[in-house]
Write a structure and sequence with these properties.
alpha/beta; Alkaline Phosphatase, subunit A; Gyrase A, domain 2; Hypothetical protein af1432; seven-stranded mixed sheet; four-stranded antiparallel sheet; 21 helices; about 50% helix; elongated
Length: about 525
C-alpha cells in the first residue's frame, strides 16, 4: 500500500515581500517544480486565531466563530481571550484533523481539535525566540519518522514574533527565513525517505506591516463600551443607543475604517460573537497595548495577501482567486486521490503487464501536463487517468464501463458533486472511442495521453508484454504496434502529443526494421 501524507507548514506572519527578498533556495526550488501564488488572500481580521481557524476548517469566521483573538461573550458577560482560553472549545466547525482517518499531528498550532499528537504552542514558545521554528521543524521530522502521519500541520511561530519585534523586512527576519529554509530542506529529505508521495503546502496565515503609533480605542470613544483588540483590528460592543455617537467619535479621528453590524456579511464576519462595530486601523496605527515594529489585523495589501506554495504542479487550477480557506480543500483533494491510487494499484495487479500501474503513471503524468497547460479540470483528468483501466481486472471487453462504474462508486462515497462525478465517468467512457467523437478538452487529454503510450518504443514494449501475456508471438506484437501507429499517429489533438507521436513513429519503425532483419 502506498504511504502518502499532507504536510502543512505555516510561516506564521510571513510577509510576501520578505519571502521575495530572502535567500531561500529550497523554497524557491519548490516553487519552480510545483505551483504557487503570492496573491492568496487571508481573512478578516488578519490575526492569528481567526486565520488559523480558517486554514484548519476551510470556512470563514462567520462559520467557525473565531472572529478575532478575543471576543465579548454577551451571554456570559465576559471577554474570551484566546491567549488564555483554549480556542478549540469555541470552534463551530470541523477541523481537517476531524475529517480524515489516520494519524494526525499538530506542532505549534493553536487549532488542534482532532489531532492525535500535539506539540503545543507553549512548548514551542518556551524555547529562545530564534530557536522556536528550528525546534518545531525538528519535532516534525522526529514525529514524521516515528508516527508516519496522514497529515501534519506545523506552525512556525517565530517568524511572526521576529517580524513584530524587529520589523517585517528586517535583517533579523531575513536571516531567520534563510535558516528556516535550510531546515525545511531537512524535513523534505525525511519525507522523501518515508513516503511514496507527499503534498507539501507552505503558506502564511497573514502578512505583517510596519506601525508607528499606538491608539487606545477606549480613550478615543470615551464611553462605557467593551473593546476586544486584535492588533490592528478590534470588535467594539456598545450599549443600546450609543452606535451613532461612537461612530461619529471614531470618524472624527480619521484613523480608522469602520464596519457596522449590517456590513459584516461583506467581510464574512456576520457572527453573533462579532461586535456592533469592527474597527480596522489605517496605515501605520496599532490598536494593541504595545507598539511593535510590525503588526497585522487590518486589510492592507501587506497584511491581506499571503504566499501559498505547493510542491506539485497539478494544483495550479486551485490557485486562481484563492484564499486561505482552500487549504482544507487542497489537502482533502490530495488525500482523496491517494485513496484512488491505492485502489488502482491493487486492482491493476490482475491485468496484463502492458496495462499495470506503470502505464497509468505515465498517462497520468502526461495528462496532468496537458491539463495544466490548457486550463482543464485537472482533478477530473487525474482521477479519470487513475481509474481508466481498472475495469480490465475483469477482462478487456467492456472495461470502459466497468472502470467508469468503479470511479462513480468511489466518488459517491467520497461525497463529490454529481456533475463532477458525471464528468469523470464521461471522460473514462470515451477513452477508447474514435477521436472525432470526443467533445471536452478533458476527454481529448486522456485520449491523447493514453494513446501516446501505445506508440514508439515504449508502445512496442507494451505490445510485446500484452501479446506475450496472451501467449502470442513477436510477429503479433509487431502487427499490434503497426495497427496502433496507423490508428493513432495522425489524430492527436495537441501539439504536445502530435510532435512526440511523429518522433516516436520514426524511432520505432527503425527498430522494427532492424528486428525484422534479425527475425
Amino acid at each position: 500500500m502506498d504511504r502518502r501524507s499532507v504536510i502543512v507548514l505555516i510561516l506564521d506572519g510571513c510577509n510576501v515581500k520578505a519571502l521575495r527578498k530572502a535567500r531561500i533556495p529550497h523554497i524557491d526550488e519548490t516553487k519552480k517544480r510545483g505551483s504557487y501564488t503570492f496573491k492568496c488572500r487571508s481573512i478578516y481580521p488578519t490575526v492569528t486565531y481567526s486565520a488559523h481557524a480558517s486554514i484548519l476548517t476551510g470556512v470563514y469566521p462567520n462559520s467557525h466563530g473565531i472572529v478575532g483573538n478575543s471576543f465579548y461573550d454577551r451571554k456570559d458577560g465576559k471577554i474570551v481571550n484566546f491567549d488564555v482560553e483554549d480556542v478549540n472549545r469555541y470552534l463551530s466547525s470541523k477541523t481537517i484533523f476531524e475529517k480524515v482517518e489516520g494519524t494526525k499531528i499538530a506542532i505549534g498550532e493553536p487549532i488542534v481539535r482532532g489531532a492525535d499528537v500535539v506539540v503545543s504552542k507553549e512548548e514551542v514558545q518556551a524555547k529562545e525566540l530564534f530557536d522556536q521554528d528550528v525546534y518545531a521543524i525538528n519535532r516534525a521530522i522526529e514525529l514524521v519518522e516515528e508516527r508516519k502521519p496522514i497529515i501534519a500541520v506545523v506552525n512556525l511561530l517565530g517568524i511572526d514574533r521576529i517580524s513584530e519585534i524587529y520589523g517585517p523586512l528586517s535583517k533579523e527576519l531575513l536571516d531567520h527565513l534563510e535558516e528556516v529554509d535550510r531546515w525545511i530542506n531537512a524535513l523534505v529529505q525525511s519525507l522523501k525517505r518515508i513516503y511514496d508521495d507527499y503534498l507539501l503546502i507552505l503558506l502564511s496565515d497573514h502578512g505583517i506591516v510596519e506601525v508607528e503609533e499606538n491608539i487606545d480605542l477606549k480613550e478615543v470613544i470615551d464611553l462605557d463600551v467593551i473593546v476586544c483588540v486584535s492588533h490592528r483590528a478590534a470588535h467594539v460592543y456598545l450599549r443600546e443607543g450609543d452606535l451613532e455617537e461612537v461612530k461619529g467619535r471614531l470618524k472624527r479621528e480619521g484613523k480608522f475604517k469602520l464596519i457596522s453590524r449590517g456590513e459584516l456579511g461583506n467581510y464574512r464576519l456576520d457572527n453573533p460573537r462579532s461586535g456592533d462595530i469592527v474597527v480596522i486601523a489605517k496605515k501605520g496605527y496599532e490598536l494593541g497595548p504595545e507598539l511593535p515594529k510590525g503588526s497585522h489585523g487590518g486589510g492592507s495589501r501587506g497584511e491581506f495577501l499571503v504566499p501559498l506554495i505547493l510542491n506539485k504542479p497539478e494544483y495550479i487550477d486551485m490557485l486562481r482567486e484563492i484564499d486561505i480557506t482552500a487549504i482544507d480543500k487542497i489537502a482533502l483533494r490530495y488525500l482523496r486521490e491517494a485513496k484512488a491510487v491505492s485502489i488502482a494499484k491493487e486492482l491493476l495487479k490482475d491485468v496484463d503487464p502492458a496495462h499495470k500501474w506503470d502505464h497509468t503513471a505515465r498517462v497520468l503524468s502526461r495528462a496532468t501536463e496537458l491539463a495544466v497547460k490548457y486550463n482543464a479540470d485537472v482533478e477530473a483528468v487525474r482521477l479519470s487517468c487513475i481509474f481508466h483501466d481498472l475495469g480490465r481486472a475483469e477482462g478487456v471487453e467492456g472495461h470502459e464501463e466497468r472502470s467508469a462504474r468503479l470511479a462513480r462508486e468511489f466518488l459517491i462515497k467520497e461525497g463529490c458533486p454529481k456533475k463532477f462525478i458525471e464528468k469523470v465517468e464521461k471522460i473514462i467512457l470515451k477513452h477508447h472511442l474514435d477521436p472525432d467523437k470526443l467533445e471536452s478538452i478533458e476527454e481529448k487529454i486522456l485520449w491523447d495521453a493514453d494513446k501516446l503510450d501505445s506508440i514508439g518504443i515504449i508502445g512496442f514494449a507494451r505490445c510485446l508484454l500484452e501479446e506475450g501475456f496472451y501467449r502470442r508471438n513477436i510477429e503479433d506484437a509487431v502487427s499490434h504496434l503497426l495497427r496502433d501507429l496507423s490508428e493513432f499517429e495522425n489524430v492527436m489533438h495537441f501539439k504536445e502529443t502530435k510532435k512526440p507521436a511523429k518522433v516516436r513513429k520514426v524511432s520505432v519503425l527503425k527498430l522494427i526494421g532492424r528486428l525484422k532483419k534479425e527475425l
